[in-house]
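Quick one: structure for this chain?
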Amino acid sequence: MRVLVIVAACATVAGCMTAGETVSFKASNPQQQALMRDGQPALVSRQKSSVVLVRPASRQLQANGRPVFVVGINNLSRQPVEFRVGQVEAVQHAAGSDFEMKIVTYEMLVQEEKNRQVALAAQKDGLS
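Got it. Here's what it folds into:
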């Protein structure tokens, strides 16, 4: 079984973006290609047994919101491909410097929503 490792700006990424910021990708190795697909920036990574495409989830980024990316994986082999969010890295390049971005997992999003609901319920109880 092959392990697929993606080192690119991808997946659901924590961090705030302000209005006017744009997404662009930079290939970090010869197997990657930064391109425009359907009018959106994308990064394609071609390996022997897989092709991975990373692109923004929407055409416009929400001001001061969390950027969200879609990762599409095409398995070209007959063997299973193992993908682990924990092996994804995202780097933001701004003002000539690189900043590691936090990858937000599904479990983290679920916990965030639970915390939001508990805080909302506590606020409502305090108003009663």
